[in-house]
């Protein structure tokens, strides 16, 4: 048997079980498959040893319970922290979405203003050209009498202009 003593290697006698005092010295309980049960002491001694074992089991149960309570409080604080982080992330997501919309609006405005600038440049050049044409078509003659009323204006201008 694992953990037990034998009376002889090849004597054919069964393996001897651990004594109760030896079992108490082991800090960990063996797995159920390899568990060794000490012989039950007679009478009043049996009640004392069973009481000591029960006390040890209750103490271990209390320690495990305290550890579980500590883990539960840690898990609760972690859960609260995760919820807080989720809210932060949701807030950041909404802010990023708003910023993306604003950037899209600004890009659209810039594109339209560039189109407007091109249109403005085209219209300005057209205006300059039209003003130049209108000045060429409007010839003003100074120091001519205003009461010239003749039938043939061409002949009058040929005589007057060198």
Characterization of the model:
With 162 residues, this protein is an all-alpha fold. It has 3 helices and no strands. The longest helix is centred in the middle third of the chain and has 94 residues, at 44-137. It is rod-shaped and about 160 Å long. Residues 1-49 are annotated as: Disordered.
Total beta strands:
0
Distance between the termini: 143 Å
H and E string: HHH
Give start-end ranges of low-pLDDT stretches: 1-10, 27-32
Relative strand content: under 5%
SS-based class? mainly alpha
Number of helices: 3
Oligomeric state of the chains in view:
single chain
Average pLDDT figure: 76
Rough shape?
Answer: rod-shaped
**Major sheet details:** none
In percent, how helical is the residue content? Answer: 55-70%
Report the radius of gyration as a whole number of Å.
55 Å
Region (Disordered): 1-49
Please specify the SSE layout and strand pairing.
Blueprint: H1 20-25, H2 44-137, H3 153-160
What are its keywords?
162 residues; mainly alpha; 67% helix; 0% strand; rod-shaped; disordered N terminus
Summed up:
This protein is mostly helical and 162 residues long.
């Amino acid at each position: 048997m694992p953990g037990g003593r034998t009376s002889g290697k090849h004597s054919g006698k069964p393996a001897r079980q651990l004594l109760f005092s030896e079992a108490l010295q082991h800090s960990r309980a063996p797995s159920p498959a390899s568990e060794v049960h000490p012989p039950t002491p007679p009478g009043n001694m049996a009640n004392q040893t069973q009481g000591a074992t029960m006390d040890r089991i209750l103490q271990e149960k209390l320690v495990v319970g305290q550890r579980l309570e500590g883990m539960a409080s840690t898990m609760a604080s972690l859960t609260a922290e995760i919820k807080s982080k989720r809210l932060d992330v949701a807030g950041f997501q909404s802010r990023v979405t708003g910023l993306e919309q604003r950037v899209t609006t600004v890009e659209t405005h810039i594109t339209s203003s560039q189109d407007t600038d091109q249109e403005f440049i085209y219209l300005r050049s057209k205006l300059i050209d039209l003003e130049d044409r209108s000045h060429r078509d409007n010839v003003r003659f100074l120091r001519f009498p205003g009461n010239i009323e003749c039938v043939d204006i061409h002949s009058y201008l040929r005589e007057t202009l060198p």
